[in-house]
Design a protein that fits this description.
single chain; alpha/beta; four-stranded antiparallel sheet; 12 strands
């Protein structure tokens, strides 16, 4: 039986109040098992990053619970719990240029967390830890005295990965870590993340808008549309049996390498108006073992029929 590390229950995240209130995420329910890569996929503005930032405490939540190792970490928590969360959960940001301090050396950037949490015995121990992590992400010791602007996008993202992992976190939120990189560098960074996961026993929440990328790295995938998680399943199951119309639409947009087949394929356009939730309200239902779909009773019945055929 897999052990749950993170659990999200009926989560709502909103911004503003009164008439200006905007609900960015609603009814989010999922869990992440220890040691797995769980991916959150959806188009821009669907609430993926908002959820990631809420887990780490950067976004306040308006309803629901975020549990880490069974302990609630959102809302009002003690300073001790907040400190524990910062130490155990780290984030790799989308834009490697914007998330690094341009005025600080790479050595300072990576060491900042070690300083804040006193995670080293003496100066020699700190240097050893920084050197070890910089080597493990594929950079050299002489890079430590340089500044972020002296590096390429891929190298900057490696610095961001090193900064997160030097803290020895248990859980890493990777927020579209390759979307700002060249295609040739993307595979290198994905391979690096997989390698480090094996070596350090990490658990990942991988946020992306491209389903073909997450297929390579994920154990399970959650599909999110306009703040609502519409489908959760194991990776290959989701690609074989996409049930929700929005998931089918996303999958139809994945490019096929063969130009002839690419021209022949039919794109599925998702129309949110096809759902009538005025009376029959939707909920998350386990339609097959470990395969969850968002829908009302009528839709769930029709999905089950399609699975039989």
């Amino acid at each position: 039986m897999a052990e749950k590390l993170v659990e999200i229950k009926d989560l709502e995240i909103s911004f503003g109040e009164g008439k200006k209130k905007f609900v960015a995420v609603k009814n989010a329910n999922f869990f992440i098992n220890k040691g797995e890569t769980f991916s959150l996929v959806g188009e821009s503005g669907s609430g993926k990053t908002t959820i990631g930032r809420a887990i780490i405490g950067l976004n306040p939540t308006s309803k629901g619970d975020i549990l880490y190792e069974g302990k609630k970490i959102n809302g009002k928590t003690s300073k001790e719990t907040q400190r524990d969360v910062i130490r155990k959960i780290q984030m790799i940001f989308q834009d490697p240029a914007a998330s690094l301090n341009e005025r600080a050396t790479v050595d300072y950037i990576i060491s900042e967390g070690l300083h804040n949490f006193k995670l080293y015995d003496n100066e020699e121990d700190r240097k050893n830890k920084v050197t070890e992590i910089i080597n493990s992400v594929g950079l050299l010791q002489e890079h430590l005295t340089r500044y972020p602007h002296e590096f390429s996008g891929g190298q900057r993202q490696r610095i961001g990965i090193a900064r997160a992992l030097v803290m020895h976190p248990d859980f890493v939120i990777a927020d579209e870590p390759i979307s700002a990189l060249d295609v040739s560098v993307r595979a290198q960074v994905l391979n690096l993340l997989k390698k480090l996961q094996k070596e350090l026993g990490l658990t990942y929440l991988f946020i992306a808008h491209d389903l073909s990328v997450v297929r390579f790295i994920s154990d399970r995938i959650a599909v999110i549309h306009k703040g609502v998680i519409v489908e959760v399943a194991e990776t290959e199951e989701l690609f074989r049996n996409p049930i929700h119309p929005y998931t089918q639409s996303l999958l139809s947009a994945v490019p096929i390498p063969d130009p002839i087949l690419e021209r022949q394929k039919e794109l599925i356009v998702y129309d949110a108006d096809q759902h009538d939730y005025s009376v029959d309200k939707p909920k998350m239902v386990e339609i097959k073992p470990n395969h969850f779909v968002w829908g009302n009773d009528k839709e769930i019945d029709s999905y089950r029929e399609k699975l039989k055929n």
